Amino acid sequence: MARFLDALQPGDTGIVLGDFGFLYRDSAEENRYLDELSDACGAKGAELAFLLGNHENFDVYDSDRFPVSERYGGRIKSVREHVLCLQHGEIYTLEGRTYCVFGGGHSLDKTQRLLNEHADGVCRWWPQEMPTERDYRNAEQNLLAHGNRVDYFLTHSCPLGLMERLRLQCGRQQSIKDDPEELPLQLKLEEYACGNDFRVWYFGHFHVDVTLGNFFSSYGAGKTFHGLLDDIVTAE
């Protein structure tokens, strides 16, 4: 996170593409670090935002603990003054560019995790990790209201049509494999990719830094997809 903070400039909004990690145990240490993180962003005149992945403490984020408000034209939850949780299916406008955000994913390792477990030192799993029909409707309604055009999609998972190319380009990594339980989400993202005009798509679920060029004819000309893990990029 220090490297991420160093990259932020005054006026920037840095966005993490899911699995933000903090408040995973909702410990005093995590909350203290979030306070410091927000202060550091504020001191730089910047903000940090994140969309929800699958390894998140959804009990905390789904609660009324953090107020819902509107920022950048869409709904957000203010985790701290300068740390924002972006919501599934919302569209935000930053520096004149539009971003459709859709988080969520399925944990392949959930059988090794404990359901809603809060004891220290264990891995946890929450069933809210997968989006709901309400989330999908929210995205569809917002995209329709924007004329089915945005500049960017920011997601945790990716459209189904990218999976085979990811495997070909990145090799047989454990994180890139067919997951029947994530299929409904990837099919929806595929619908969004085929049914909306956009410039660039960024996703973060698969633990790779990779660029997939314009070889998906069903998505239209000039589309680029970026998988991100360690790379810090400026939106193209």
Give a quick summary of the entry:
With 236 residues, the protein is an alpha/beta fold.
Question: How do the strands and helices of this protein lay out in sequence?
Answer:
Layout: H1 2-7, E1 13-16, H2 28-44, E2 47-50, H3 58-61, E3 68-71, E4 74-80, E5 83-86, E6 91-94, E7 97-102, E8 114-115, E9 124-125, H4 133-145, E10 152-155, H5 163-170, H6 183-195, E11 200-203, E12 210-212, E13 224-227
Parallel strand pairs: 1-2, 2-5, 7-10, 8-9, 10-11, 11-13
Antiparallel strand pairs: 3-4, 4-5, 6-7, 12-13
Structural overview:
The protein is α/β, with parallel strands linked by helices. The chain has six helices and 13 strands. The protein has a six-stranded mixed β-sheet. The protein has a five-stranded mixed β-sheet with strand order 1-2-5-4-3. A two-stranded parallel ribbon has the order 8-9. It starts with a helix and ends in a 9-residue tail after the last strand.
**Element string (H = helix, E = strand):** HEHEHEEEEEEEHEHHEEE
Query: What general outline do the C-alpha atoms trace?
Result: globular
Give helix % range.
25-40%
Poorly predicted ranges: none
Please tag this protein with its features.
236 residues; alpha/beta; five-stranded mixed beta sheet; 6 helices; six-stranded mixed beta sheet
